[in-house]
Amino acid sequence: MGSLTKAELAERLHQDLYLPKRDAKLLVETFFAEIRECLRCNEQVKLSGFGNFDLRDKGERPGRNPKTGEEIPISARRVVTFKPGQKLKQKVEKFKGDTQ
Amino acid sequence: MTKSELIEQIASQLTDLPVKDVELAVKLILEQMTDALAQGGRVEIRGFGSFSLHYREPRTGRNPKTGEQVALVGKYVPHFKPGKELREMVDQAAKTAPTRRPHINPHLRLV
After folding, report:
1. Which domain holds residue B19?
2. Which site in A97, B17, B66, B78 is 20 to 30 Å from B57, CA atoms measured?
């Protein structure tokens, strides 16, 4: 199975909601751009049923170059984490993988 | 930002679309992503990140109340990996002066 992409998301908006293709594409772009913008401003995004995008400020920690074994510090940074919502977790749990 | 605030934000930018359409679209986007993952698929959004499933091995858990042992089956959990653009954008913002954009609070009402 291929991956779901912005193009497919927009195609469904076009087919199911009869949105013109141009609007459908713009809507999908704006959807992700708005979430990104919110996270850039250090604001959590809560999409009930789907999940929350949170931000975490991490301090510097010691790391290693996996190739050379050389010790290099991993600088302090802000990262995005995703905490799946109850509904999404439940739906995914039911998936009985055919690969593992 | 909540789902309804996201809908408002999108609608305020795409002014020629009815809010109702934006609302339906947001719900359909989330539903499609959920369904893709529920079927064991991946979601790949360039510039944002990708969602996939991670497998959790079966394990013996405990009922925290009774202390009783319970066998937990293996299962899949959703996982999000932020894309390069999102990662850099968020980290860059943290390193420069934090700018909070003005946010419209729908619960605030003028009296």
Report:
1. 1-39
2. B66
